[in-house]
C-alpha cells in the first residue's frame, strides 16, 4: 500500500545554471528506465545531508531514461536548495521517490497556463503535452526579472507566440483579471507560483476552471490539538500522539519512521492508509478516502488504525 | 597508588616551549580568518561538533551539539549560526558567553579523520531569518548563537587515527560502560527503580526538537 515510500536510484548526470539563482539537474537511472510520470508530477529527492525535498519534474515524460528538475536557491534555505546549489556534484547517486501527481492535467478543449518563477517547472510538461495533442494552449510566464527566469528562452523558441514572458521589473505585474474576462468558455486554467500569484488567479478565474499548485501551505486555523492513539495494524504497536507532536513525529520517535518532505501537507510524501477511525484532515492536497497525510493531519476520534 | 606525590609536577611555559617547540610556519599559515569553500563543505556535512566557552574567571566548559549535517549555518564567510535545541545545555554556554564571548568549535564528519576548528566570538540572537533556516520538525528554535569567525583551520587526523574513532570495532567499548541509569543512581545517591529512570530518559530522547 505504502507505494509512495518506494525509492529509485539515480545518478546526477548534469548540473546546469538555468537562471541567476536556479540550477537544473538531470538525474539518470543507472541501470535502465525510471518510473513513468505524467505532467504535473513531482518526486522526493533524498539529499546526502539527510534532508528530503520535493521538485516538480520539468523534462519530457517520453524520456524514460532521465528526470529533469530545477531548483531555486532559497535565501532562507534550511539546507535543501543550498545543498544542491553549492555541494552536489556530478556523478553522485541520489535516491528519489516514485513520481506522485497532485496536479494532473485534465483533458480540456483549451488551456491557459500561468506560471510564476520556479512554478514554471510543473507547467512546462503540461504545455508540451497540450501542444503535442494539438489542443489550443497558451502560457503566461511571470518572474521578477528576465535573468531570474529559467527556461524562458527555451520556451519562446519552442512554442513561439503561445508563450508570453513577463518580467515584472520591466513591465509590472500582468493583469490576470483581464485575462480572466477573455478566457474562452470551457478553457481550463493551470496556475503554479507564489502565494501572491495564486491569490490573484483565484480572484481572476472561475473556481471550477482553475487548478493550482502551491509552494507553501496556506496558513489556516484548526481546532486545538488533542491527544490520540495510532495503532499500527501490521505490527500491533500502539503509538501515543501527544497534543504537541505530529502523527509523523510520534511514529518516527516510536521507531516507525514515515518518509516526509514538506511537513506542510502539500507534497504527499507522508501519505498513510487509514483502516479505522476518523482522520481530521489538515492538508492542502485533499486526501482521498482512506488516506491521510501524517505531517499535518490528526484524528477526531480517540484512535486511528493505520496500515503500518 | 600510582603516584608518589598527590599532584603531578607542573612544567613551566618556557620548558614546554623547549620541549615541543614553536608551531611550524607551515602549520600556522593554514589558519584562515574566514570560511573558505573547503571549510564550508566540511561544515555542510558535519552533524556534530563540540563547543568550548569559558566564564569571566576562565573556568572552561565544553559541550556536544548535534543535528542533521549542516545544522551549523554559514551566514557568510565570517559568520556562523548554531541553533539552540533542547538538551544542548546551551544555558551554560549563554551564561559563559555573556561574561566572555570567546568560543571554540570543533566540527566532525563521520568517517573523516581530519577535523575543522573554528574560533571566534559569539552572541545570542532571535533574528527571524536566522531561526527560519533552522526549522526542523515544524519547530524553530527560540534562540540561535551567532559566531563571528576569527580563525578557521583543519586539524590533522592523528588523534582520530590513534583513537580508532570511526572503526566500527571500537563500538565494542560501549559494552563496558554501565547503563546511564546505574551511573545516575550512583552519582545522585538515590535509590530509584532503574527501569523507571530508563523510561524517563528514553521519553526525553524521543523529543529531540
Ligand atoms: S510531508 Fe509533505 S504532505 Fe506530509
TrEMBL record, chain B:
Domain of life per record: Bacteria
Pyridoxamine 5'-phosphate oxidase N-terminal domain span: 36-156
InterPro entries registered for this protein in UniProt: Pyridox_Oxase_FMN-dep, Pyridox_Oxase_N, Split_barrel_FMN-bd
Alphabetized PANTHER family for the sequence: FAD-BINDING, PUTATIVE (AFU_ORTHOLOGUE AFUA_6G07600)-RELATED (PTHR42815)
NCBIfam families cross-referenced by the UniProt entry: PPOX_FMN_DR2398
Protein's name in the database: Pyridoxamine 5'-phosphate oxidase family protein
Source organism (scientific name): Streptomyces smyrnaeus
Amino acid at each position: 500500500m505504502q507505494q509512495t515510500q518506494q525509492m529509485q536510484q539515480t545518478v546526477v548526470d548534469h548540473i546546469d545554471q538555468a537562471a541567476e539563482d536556479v540550477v537544473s539537474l538531470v538525474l539518470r537511472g543507472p541501470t535502465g528506465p525510471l518510473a513513468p510520470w505524467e505532467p504535473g508530477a513531482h518526486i522526493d529527492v533524498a539529499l546526502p545531508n539527510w534532508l528530503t525535498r520535493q521538485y516538480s519534474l520539468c523534462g519530457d515524460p517520453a524520456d524514460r531514461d532521465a528526470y529533469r528538475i530545477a531548483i531555486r536557491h532559497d535565501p532562507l534555505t534550511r539546507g535543501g536548495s543550498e545543498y544542491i546549489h553549492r555541494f552536489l556534484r556530478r556523478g553522485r547517486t541520489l535516491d528519489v521517490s516514485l513520481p506522485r501527481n497532485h496536479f494532473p492535467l485534465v483533458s480540456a478543449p483549451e488551456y491557459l497556463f500561468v506560471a510564476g518563477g520556479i512554478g514554471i517547472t510543473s507547467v512546462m510538461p503540461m504545455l508540451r503535452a497540450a501542444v503535442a495533442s494539438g489542443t489550443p494552449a497558451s502560457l503566461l510566464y511571470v518572474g521578477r526579472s528576465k535573468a531570474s527566469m529559467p527556461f524562458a528562452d527555451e520556451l519562446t523558441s519552442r512554442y513561439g507566440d503561445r508563450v508570453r514572458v513577463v518580467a515584472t521589473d520591466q513591465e509590472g505585474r500582468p493583469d490576470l483579471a483581464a485575462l480572466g474576462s477573455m478566457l474562452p468558455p470551457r478553457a481550463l486554467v493551470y496556475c503554479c507560483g507564489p502565494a501572491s500569484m495564486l491569490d490573484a488567479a483565484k480572484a481572476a478565474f472561475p473556481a471550477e476552471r482553475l487548478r493550482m499548485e502551491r509552494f507553501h501551505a496556506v496558513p489556516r486555523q484548526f481546532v486545538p490539538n488533542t491527544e490520540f492513539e495510532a495503532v499500527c495494524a501490521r505490527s500491533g504497536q500502539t503509538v501515543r500522539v501527544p497534543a504537541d507532536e505530529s502523527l509523523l513525529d510520534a511514529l518516527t520517535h516510536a521507531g516507525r519512521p514515515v518518509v516526509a518532505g514538506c511537513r506542510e501537507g502539500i507534497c504527499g510524501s507522508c501519505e498513510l492508509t487509514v483502516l479505522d477511525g476518523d482522520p481530521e484532515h489538515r492538508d492542502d492536497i485533499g486526501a482521498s478516502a482512506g488516506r491521510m497525510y501524517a505531517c499535518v493531519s490528526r484524528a477526531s476520534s480517540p484512535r486511528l488504525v493505520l496500515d503500518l | 597508588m600510582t603516584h608518589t606525590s598527590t599532584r603531578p609536577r607542573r612544567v613551566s611555559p618556557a620548558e614546554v616551549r623547549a620541549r615541543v617547540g614553536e608551531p611550524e610556519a607551515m602549520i600556522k599559515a593554514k589558519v584562515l580568518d574566514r570560511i573558505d569553500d573547503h571549510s564550508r563543505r566540511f561544515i555542510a556535512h558535519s552533524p556534530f561538533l563540540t563547543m568550548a566557552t569559558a566564564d569571566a574567571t576562565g573556568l572552561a566548559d565544553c559541550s556536544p551539539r548535534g543535528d542533521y549535517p549542516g545544522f551549523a549555518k554559514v551566514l557568510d564567510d565570517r559568520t556562523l549560526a548554531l541553533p539552540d535545541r533542547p538538551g544542548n545545555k546551551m544555558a551554560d554556554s549563554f551564561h559563559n558567553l555573556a561574561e566572555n564571548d570567546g568560543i571554540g568549535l570543533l566540527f566532525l564528519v563521520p568517517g573523516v579523520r581530519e577535523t575543522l576548528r573554528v574560533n571566534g566570538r559569539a552572541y545570542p540572537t532571535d533574528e527571524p531569518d536566522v531561526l527560519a533556516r533552522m526549522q526542523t520538525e515544524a519547530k524553530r528554535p527560540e534562540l540561535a548563537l551567532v559566531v563571528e569567525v576569527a580563525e578557521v583551520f583543519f586539524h590533522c587526523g592523528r588523534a582520530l587515527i590513534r583513537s580508532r574513532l570511526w572503526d566500527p570495532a571500537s563500538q565494542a567499548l560501549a559494552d563496558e560502560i554501565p547503563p546511564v541509569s546505574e551511573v545516575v543512581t550512583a552519582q545522585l545517591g538515590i535509590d530509584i527503580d532503574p527501569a523507571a529512570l530508563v523510561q524517563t530518559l528514553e521519553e526525553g530522547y524521543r523529543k529531540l526538537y
